[in-house]
Q: What sequence folds into this?
């Protein structure tokens, strides 16, 4: 049997998102605004919103914004960050859930966790005439690999992944199950089969270099599904100590540099 979603997928990760994930840039919102002519009207639905990182960036472009996520911790964190947005704890597979229709529906680093054909079908009728579905392809926990000189050492991501594997085993964990082959792809085939047209593509460049503290890197690790705090059980403090020790060996002053990754916006019409 293949991997099936369960409610522990990101258990304990929500508090680490705001610390360990690099925020989406304002120019992402500007690019989407300019491309779609967003003018403060209509409604936004952000599916798999996590703690609201993208939702809150885009909300000013709409009259109303709704964020949905299956993880109660993520929704709790989102509500703590902003009470003006409507936050709902529910799975994407449970849509439309009486939420109405939307000018834009976004999926940021989330669609691969879902029953893609089912969600694509259910969301299609939630998109208002002239509206759009937007995939946001990004990697906000880590930067670009490379050997170009930076002000501080890069986080040792290969060694970090090896440390996770030593604690949890060589097969990638995901909730109560495992993903030996990684998360699924094939989004474009799913979208076309569900009757969407497109896509249109926008690249949001992010070549800037950021400085990150060791604690930010620790939180970045704990924000990942395959290193969520609950997976380590009673050994979570030992893993955290090992991780901090590894980071201290690479950067004794606790400062790291990373060059940020570009973001791709892939836009579909129902």
A:
């Amino acid at each position: 049997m293949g991997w099936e979603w369960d409610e522990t997928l990101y258990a304990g990760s929500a508090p680490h998102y705001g610390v360990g994930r690099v925020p989406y840039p304002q120019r992402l919102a500007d690019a989407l605004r300019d491309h779609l002519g967003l003018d403060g009207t209509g409604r936004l639905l952000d599916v798999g919103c996590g703690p609201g990182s993208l939702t809150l960036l885009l909300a000013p472009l709409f009259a109303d914004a709704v964020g949905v996520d299956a993880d109660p911790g993520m929704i709790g964190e989102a509500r703590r960050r902003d009470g003006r947005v409507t936050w709902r704890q529910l799975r994407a597979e449970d849509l439309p859930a009486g939420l109405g229709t939307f000018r834009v529906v976004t999926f940021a680093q989330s669609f691969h966790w879902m029953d893609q054909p089912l969600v694509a079908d259910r969301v299609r009728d939630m998109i208002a005439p002239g509206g759009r579905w937007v995939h946001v392809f990004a990697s906000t926990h880590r930067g670009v690999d490379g050997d170009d000189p930076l002000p501080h050492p890069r986080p040792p991501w290969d060694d970090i992944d090896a440390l996770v594997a030593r604690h949890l085993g060589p097969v990638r964990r995901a909730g109560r199950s495992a993903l030996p082959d990684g998360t699924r792809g094939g989004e474009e085939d799913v979208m076309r089969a569900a009757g969407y047209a497109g896509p249109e593509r926008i690249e949001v460049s992010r070549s800037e270099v950021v400085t990150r503290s060791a604690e930010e890197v620790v939180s970045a690790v704990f924000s990942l599904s395959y290193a969520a705090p609950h997976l380590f059980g009673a050994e979570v403090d030992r893993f955290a100590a090992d991780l901090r020790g590894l980071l201290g060996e690479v950067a004794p002053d606790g400062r790291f540099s990373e060059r940020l990754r570009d973001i791709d916006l892939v836009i579909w019409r129902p």
